[in-house]
Amino acid sequence: MGTQPQRVQIVEVGPRDGLQNEPDVVPTDVKVAWIDRLSETGLKRIEVTSFVNPRWIPALADAEEVMRRIRRAEGVQYSALVPNVKGLERAAAIGVEAVAVFMSASETHNRKNINKSIADTYPVLAEAVQEAKAGGMFVRGYVSTAFGCPCEGRVPVEQVREVSLRLLEMGIDELSVGDTIGVATPADVHRLVDLLLKDVAIDRLALHFHDTYGMAIANIYAAMEHGVYIFDASSGGLGGCPYAPGATGNVATEDVLYLMRGCGVETGVSFEAALGAAEFIEGALGRTLPAHNLRARRGASCSNDRADLHQCSR
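That's the Hydroxymethylglutaryl-CoA lyase (Leucine degradation) sequence above. Prediction below.
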């Protein structure tokens, strides 16, 4: 295993991966105000929206307007998801400078999510990646269901490796490997990360955990033991997977920050400002979000900063 990183980079995916799962469409004004708050936390990367056909994700049908209206903070990368060249063209037309393409490591999920086989998905994404790179864009590649598929169960690590390497061969700048239904344990993380790091540079590998079974923070810590330092997270723990009953969504940004602060790992992100952004979207949605630190804040009986009482060995 590698050395635990001294600094971690958090990629905020709530505005896209969180809101796309909301049953009700969130007003554009709320989205813009929330993203502007996230921009003030110290986060350097925010995934804002998706340029997937609005018929498939009506919750993000206002992608152009949101991208146009957000207040762009200096030094912050604002990205968007694109499914193909058509989505890429929409993103480029509004001035998006960083995009992400996506596919699954399991055949059944890929067919359900993209309506194509894995083999048929490769040329579609390759065309989009090539055009994005030709336009000077930063390109990320998502691999979903890397630890488990709601239809096929456990996904073989070699299958994840094969899909990952194909995306890297296309020319993506960064690979984000996702536990879409939140079934991974630290042992699974050690096994997959060990394999991937034989072919993938540490500065090109990100991990994306969901907290369905309460393992996300433990899985992040396991990945850090290999030196991984890029992690996706969602403000308030917003999000989820429709194929996983009881799924509680993405790991919460605030909970990742709590872990890092306790371990003495730098993030450059204000814990209090991140909590404020999560409280804002929680209030706007009118329901309780699953972030542990939001729950702890609501139930706190004193004003002591208890986060400072917890230190873990490095």
